[in-house]
């Protein structure tokens, strides 16, 4: 029973350590608010500054994984270039070594006091700023309490010799590298992986002083842990677009190249490890921390000139997908550069609005398909695209508002007003598409049923509305009077069909032929489709004077 208790003590220590390091990182990120994300987003294209920014931000939040995930998100949204993101992540690798340096300090005996102080600040002080500081201190104390418990368990179970044998058996560089990578991939934190290695190796050294444990036993394991640090970025990119996957794979390539470079350095200059050992001859934990720091600093300096070529290689291997470019959270055609003439600016603005129209139109079609096919995955995609729609609506609205403050001719001013109206109508179409996706989720989750005859009516109304949205967008794109008239005619037909479907539904309810819950969804969708058709009429009548050349136009939907 005593041995089982010691096993639980070891597992509990590992759990407290992992929780502490994660809680401390989250506390630091919350204490610093949105400043870190803003700093990263505003990082200039200057490479050295990007590296320094990545190092400082990661040192502050104690999580290279969090920094990498933020950077991958920026690259995915096209708010940051791949090379710039790689420079930031290069710095993040250096910043994350601070955790290992802190762990190397022998402050375990103070862990209970630090834990108590953090708990008091976090639980009993009402001031928000103090609570955030308390969260950091609490995580810090929990981290070192976990280290203390792990050390106690290893000592009581006399596992020093076992750990010593385990580390010595990983002399094979490839096996050691692979173990370090997999261990970190599972933990999702290189700081945690290196920290646990420090505790285990330090305890083994203390228990087997007659058998000195050398730094060379763990050097490739530490390098593998640095490669495993890219795990959060890889996982976060799986559900992202091609740009995010490109960023994650490029960062993995940088990590592997770092291992190759540092391995070559060790082979050519074997005394480098002896130099690191000589800085703290009796403290293996500090040696591992210094190795971790040296590896990242040396490789960051040596690989710095190759980051842009690496970015170029992966950009060529995974080129941009035109559809993903369409859905980027960024204005593609306009900028704050107002040096162009009014005609050119309005032409480019219309091109941006047309892109917005394509996104809203496609998302509405996606929402209708999701509902008719009972496809929750498609409904989820509608919600994802709606985030982009909301972002572009805000950015376009602000940009067009800025145009209205300029000195414009009467015709140009009228064009700007019509563009603003178009954006509002398109955004409302996007909102109704989101409503339809919400009904899809509701029906699937609550197993709500709509009768077959009702679904047939909705299918007909949905197809008519999809056709009207396409014609309205094309009428806006081309200024075709013929298409404007077709939109108005179809809008009248949609109104008539909507009224008929509602009346038919009321008749079915008299004979209890429809599920009342499904009936609510049914009438709400009819209302959404009818309102979308109204917005189509508004959009078709919005015809700015600025004409877009055929070669510059966005994707033209086929009119059904």
Helices and strands, with pairings:
Layout: H1 2-31, H2 35-41, H3 47-61, H4 64-76, H5 82-95, H6 97-104, H7 111-124, H8 128-156, H9 160-168, H10 173-187, H11 190-207, H12 219-228, H13 231-238, H14 242-268, H15 271-278, H16 284-303, H17 307-317, H18 322-326, H19 342-373, H20 376-404, H21 410-446, H22 452-478, H23 481-510, H24 516-540
Helix pairs in contact: 1-8, 3-5, 4-5, 4-13, 4-14, 5-14, 5-16, 5-17, 6-11, 6-16, 7-8, 8-11, 9-11, 10-11, 10-12, 11-16, 12-14, 12-16, 13-14, 14-16, 14-17, 19-20, 19-21, 19-22, 20-21, 21-24, 22-23, 22-24, 23-24
- How many helices? The count is 24
Helix and strand string, N-terminal first?
HHHHHHHHHHHHHHHHHHHHHHHH
Structural class of the helices, strands and pairings?
A: mainly alpha
> Whole-number average pLDDT?
82
Number of folding domains?
A: 2
Shape: elongated
Strand content: under 5%
| Low-pLDDT residue spans | 544-560
CA(first)-CA(last) distance: 76 Å
Helical content stands at: over 70%
Characterization of this structure:
With 560 residues, the protein is an all-alpha fold. The chain has two domains: 316 residues, no CATH class; 211 residues, Methane Monooxygenase Hydroxylase, Chain G, domain 1, CATH 1.20.58. The protein starts with a helix and ends in a 20-residue tail after the last helix. The C terminus is likely disordered.
